[in-house]
Automatic annotation (TrEMBL):
Belongs to the MurJ/MviN family. The gene is murJ. The chain crosses the membrane at residues 12-31, 51-71, 91-113, 133-152, 159-179, 185-208, 228-248, 268-289, 310-330, 342-360, 381-401, 407-426, 438-460, 472-495. It is found in: Cell membrane. Keywords: Cell membrane, Cell shape, Cell wall biogenesis/degradation, Membrane, Peptidoglycan synthesis, Transmembrane, Transmembrane helix, Transport. Pfam families: MurJ. Its main location: membrane. CDD domains: MATE_MurJ_like (cd13123). One of its GO terms (cellular component) is plasma membrane. It is a multi-pass membrane protein. This is Probable lipid II flippase MurJ. Involved in peptidoglycan biosynthesis. Transports lipid-linked peptidoglycan precursors from the inner to the outer leaflet of the cytoplasmic membrane.
C-alpha cells in the first residue's frame, strides 16, 4: 500500500474514533452537570483536576511527543530490541520521577490548593484538598499512556491509542450515573483515576503484540533518556507560552461586557471539535520521523506537502461553512435555558473570528510535527513565542474596535503568522516543499469553498421555507445544506485537481474489485 493510501486510511480511522471519543467526552460533561449541577463540589473537582494537570500534563505531553522521532531513530539504526530497551529505561526512569513528584504533590496538597484556588474557603477548600490527593496519581498513568501511545504510533498502529479516551469517559459516566448519589463527586474522582489506568492497560496488549517485553532497567545517565528530556524542554516551554496566552485573553475579556469569557469558551469548544487536522497530524508524524531516520528527505518533503494540501482541502471549506452557518450551529447546540439569544450572538462573534484561524491551526499542528520529526523542537517554540507576543499586542489594539471579536481575530491572526513562519523556517531547513503546488491547492480550495458556501446557503434558506422555524427543522435544513454543499465542493476539487481525481478512481477500482470478488 502506498504512503498516500496508508495515510488516508489511518487518518480516516483516527477521525472516526476521535469523533466518538469527543462525543463521549461531551456526554461525560452533560452527565456530571445533570448529577451535580454547578455546585461548589463540581468547582472543587474541576480545580482538583487542574492542579496535577497544570503541574504535569504539559510535561507528559511534551515527553510523549519527543518519543516518536527518537524511537523511530532507534528502530531504523539499532533495531527493535534496542528500541524497546530504550523505552523500558525511559519508562522506568520517568515512572520513578513521577511517583516521587506525585508523592510530593500529595504531601504539599494543602499549599498547592491555597496557591491555585486562593478564593476557596471552608467546605469547598477541604473538598478540593481531598480530591487533589485522590487525583494526584493520575499524572503517573498519563505519562505512561503518552509514552506507549508514541511507541504504537511509531509502529503505525493508531486505532487503540485514538480510542483510549472512550472507556475513560464511559467509566466516569457510569460511576456518576450509578454511584453519584452514594459517593458524590469523590466517586467521580476515583473513576477518573481508574479511567487513566484503563488507558494504559488498553494499550499494553498491542505493545506486547509488537514484541515489547517489560524489563526493569534503570540508567538515568542513558543518552536516550537525556535526549528525550532535552528535546521535550522546548515543547514544554512552547506549551507554557500558549497557556500564558490563554490567560491573557481571559484577563482582557474580563474587561468586556458580561458573558464575553463564557462566549469565548463556548466558541473554543466548537473550534476544538476539529478532528480532521488532528487526525492528519497524528498519522503523519511517525511517518515523517521514519523518513528522516532513514535519511529519505525526498519522501519527507512529499509527506509534508501531502499533509499541507490535505489540511487546505479539508479545513478551508470547514472554515467557510462555520462562518456562514455560525448562528444555526450555535442555536442548535447551545441555545436553551439560560443560554439565550444574546448568548448566541456573543458566541457567534467569537466563533466567526476564531474560525478564520482553523486552517492555520491545522497547518501549525502538521508543520510543528515536521520539525519534531527533524528533532528540532526549538524552532516551533521560538515561532510560537513570537506569535504569542503578536497576539497580545493585537489584543490591546483591535479589542478597542471589535471588543470580543478583536480577541478572537487576534488569535486567528497569530495562528496564521505562526503557520507562515513555520513554513518559511521549514523551507530554509530542508529546501523547497512544493510551494507553487501548495499555492495552487490553496486557490482551488478557496474557489471551491466560495462556490460551496453560496450553494449551501441557498439550499439552507430554500429548505427552511418549507419547515416551521423550530430547532429540529433547522437542524434538518443545516444537515441538508452541508451535504449538498459538500457534494458541490468535492466535484469542483476533483475536476480541478487531477491527483485527487486519481486517488478517487483508484479507490473506486479497488472497491469494485472487492465487490466482484477479485
Amino acid at each position: 500500500m502506498s504512503t498516500v493510501k496508508k495515510t488516508a486510511k489511518a487518518a480516516g480511522l483516527v477521525m472516526v474514533i476521535t469523533l466518538i471519543s469527543k462525543i463521549t467526552g461531551f456526554l461525560r460533561e452533560v452527565v456530571i452537570g445533570s448529577k451535580f449541577g454547578t455546585t461548589k463540589y463540581v468547582d472543587a473537582y474541576n480545580m482538583a483536576q487542574n492542579i496535577p494537570m497544570v503541574l504535569f500534563a504539559a510535561i507528559a505531553a511534551s515527553i510523549g511527543t519527543t518519543v516518536i522521532p527518537l524511537f523511530s531513530e532507534y528502530l531504523a539504526k539499532k533495531g527493535k530490541d534496542k528500541a524497546f530497551d530504550f523505552i523500558n529505561n525511559l519508562l522506568n526512569a520517568l515512572i520513578l520521577l513521577t511517583v516521587i513528584f506525585a508523592s510530593v504533590g500529595i504531601v504539599m496538597a494543602p499549599i498547592l490548593v491555597k496557591i491555585m484556588a486562593p478564593g476557596f474557603k471552608g467546605d469547598v477548600y477541604h473538598a478540593t484538598l481531598k480530591l487533589t490527593m485522590i487525583l494526584m496519581p493520575v499524572m503517573v498513568f498519563v505519562l505512561v499512556s503518552n509514552i506507549i501511545t508514541g511507541v504504537l504510533q511509531s509502529l503505525d498502529h493508531f486505532s487503540v491509542p485514538a480510542m483510549i479516551g472512550i472507556p475513560y469517559n464511559i467509566i466516569i459516566i457510569g460511576v456518576a450515573l450509578l454511584y453519584g448519589a452514594k459517593y458524590g463527586i469523590y466517586g467521580v474522582a476515583v473513576a477518573t483515576v481508574a479511567g487513566s489506568i484503563i488507558q494504559v492497560i488498553m494499550q499494553l496488549p498491542v505493545l506486547y503484540k509488537f514484541g515489547f517485553r517489560y524489563r526493569f532497567v534503570l540508567d538515568l545517565k542513558d543518552e536516550g533518556v537525556k535526549r528525550v528530556i532535552i528535546l521535550a524542554m522546548p515543547v514544554l516551554v512552547g506549551t507554557s507560552i500558549q497557556v500564558i496566552n490563554t490567560y491573557v485573553d481571559r484577563m482582557i475579556a474580563s474587561y468586556l461586557p458580561s458573558g464575553s469569557i463564557a462566549a469565548l469558551n463556548y466558541a473554543n469548544r466548537l473550534i476544538g471539535f476539529d478532528i480532521f487536522s488532528m487526525a492528519i497530524a497524528i498519522v503523519i508524524y511517525p511517518m515523517l520521523s521514519k523518513h528522516f531516520a532513514a535519511n529519505n528527505i525526498d519522501e519527507f518533503k512529499k509527506g509534508i506537502k501531502m499533509a499541507v494540501k490535505a489540511i487546505l482541502y479539508i479545513m478551508i471549506p470547514v472554515t467557510v461553512g462555520a462562518i456562514i452557518f455560525r448562528y444555526p450551529i450555535i442555536r442548535i447546540l447551545f441555545e436553551r435555558g439560560a443560554f439565550n439569544e444574546r448568548s448566541t450572538y456573543l458566541t457567534s462573534i467569537a466563533f466567526m473570528f476564531l474560525s478564520l484561524g482553523m486552517t492555520a491551526n491545522g497547518l501549525r499542528n502538521v508543520l510543528s510535527r515536521g520539525f519534531y520529526s527533524l528533532k528540532d523542537t526549538k524552532t516551533p517554540m521560538v515561532n510560537g513565542a513570537i506569535a504569542v507576543l503578536v497576539n497580545i499586542g493585537l489584543n490591546l489594539i483591535i479589542v478597542r474596535y471589535l471588543a470580543l471579536g478583536g480577541l478572537a481575530l487576534s488569535t486567528s491572526v497569530a495562528a496564521t503568522l505562526t503557520s507562515l513562519m513555520l513554513m518559511y523556517s521549514l523551507k530554509r531547513k530542508i529546501g523547497t516543499i512544493g510551494g507553487y503546488e501548495i499555492l495552487a491547492s490553496f486557490i482551488k480550495a478557496i474557489t471551491g469553498s466560495i462556490v460551496m458556501g453560496g450553494f449551501a446557503y441557498l439550499t439552507f434558506n430554500l429548505v427552511m421555507r418549507h419547515f416551521p422555524a423550530t430547532k429540529i427543522y433547522e437542524a434538518v435544513s443545516l444537515v441538508t445544506a452541508i451535504f449538498a454543499g459538500s457534494i458541490v465542493y468535492i466535484a469542483i476539487i476533483m475536476l480541478s485537481d487531477n491527483s485527487i481525481l486519481g486517488y478517487v478512481k483508484k479507490g473506486a477500482k479497488m472497491l469494485k474489485g472487492k465487490l466482484a470478488g477479485d
